[in-house]
Specification:
GO terms for molecular function: ATP binding; ATP hydrolysis activity. This protein is α/β, with parallel strands linked by helices. It is 30% helix and 27% strand. The chain binds adenosine-5'-triphosphate (ATP).
């Protein structure tokens, strides 16, 4: 099992944030995690990566049960790309793209530990494979938003993680940059040695053909989890996102349309 959560609850300052979450991710499955703002997506990722600790329940990631595992060792097997990672690099805008990618080897920002020639070559090979060779030696500040996001994805991939978390990977991208980044994700997923992906998004149409399963969160609970065709129904997705929606499948992706949302008032699920 890649991820196994049994009856996991999480609270912060006495506020219940996640309640009774049971969820299994098996090898070969690729997951999207969908839910409204505040539904608990980031909190769930923090529990899985050991940045927060569950108040109840059992968590096992990549075969290691939390409580009896060295979290730092486990994190080396997990790649995580999020807006907060991007923010941490805002202090290092002068860093060349290739160095950003290489910094993933030790999952640190500065080069605190020895970088081998092989690490540098791997970073350049990744930059090439993601179409970043023309900016490989440019400072981060000169990269477009799309290139910047690809650089962080390459940084996460340099250690060949078994689990890759992409958290709102396309935020701030225009339509064409978004499609280019999604094409990169799809290409990565169709490779033989693909990591297991957790793809967190607010936009169902980003659920790529290679993503097989969807977890829907609502108010800190699992609303549905399973094969995407079964989970991405109009009624479940409307309930998860709190407004009436229809779903149409095109090019292997689900396209969601709001029907008459505001005219009829939003359903806040209460
Ligand atoms: N450290 C904290 N202390 C108190 N409440 C918190 C803390 N972290 C998160 N929360 C609350 O927990 C709930 C879930 O937050 P979380 O960030 O996990 O949601 P999310 O689904 O990732 O939201 P978004 O889509 O807006 O990023 C929110 O109501 C949030 O205010």
């Amino acid at each position: 099992m890649v991820i196994d959560l049994e009856n996991v609850s999480f609270q912060k300052a006495k506020k219940p944030i996640l309640q009774d979450i049971s969820w299994q991710v098996r090898p070969g499955e690729q997951w999207a995690i969908l839910g409204a703002n505040g539904s608990g997506k980031t909190s769930l990722l923090k529990l899985i990566t050991g940045y927060e600790w569950a108040s109840a329940g059992r968590i096992s990631v990549l075969g290691s049960v939390f409580g009896s595992v060295n979290i730092h060792e486990l994190r080396k097997r997990v790649g995580w790309v999020s807006a907060s990672l991007d923010q941490r690099y805002q202090m290092h805008e002068g860093m060349p793209c290739a160095d950003v990618i290489v910094s993933g080897v030790h999952a640190s920002i500065g080069v605190h530990e020895a970088i081998t020639k092989a690490d540098g070559e791997r970073a350049l090979a990744l930059a090439r494979s993601m179409g970043l060779e023309h900016v490989a030696f440019s400072p981060l500040s000169q990269l477009s938003q799309g290139e910047r996001k690809k650089a962080f994805m390459a940084r996460a991939l340099i250690n060949e993680p078994e689990l890759l978390i992409l958290d709102e990977a396309t935020s701030g991208l225009d339509l064409s940059a978004r499609e280019l980044l999604l094409a990169e994700v799809e290409r990565m997923l169709t490779r033989k040695q693909a990591p297991t992906l957790l793809y967190v998004t607010h936009y169902p149409e980003e659920i790529l053909p290679s993503i097989s399963h969807v977890l829907l969160l609502k108010k800190g609970r699992v609303l549905a989890a399973g094969r995407k065709e079964e989970v991405l129904t109009a009624s479940l997705i409307s309930e998860a996102l709190g407004l009436p929606l229809t779903v149409e499948w095109a090019n292997g992706r689900p396209w969601v349309k709001a029907t008459t949302a505001f005219a009829h008032g939003l359903d806040n699920g209460d």
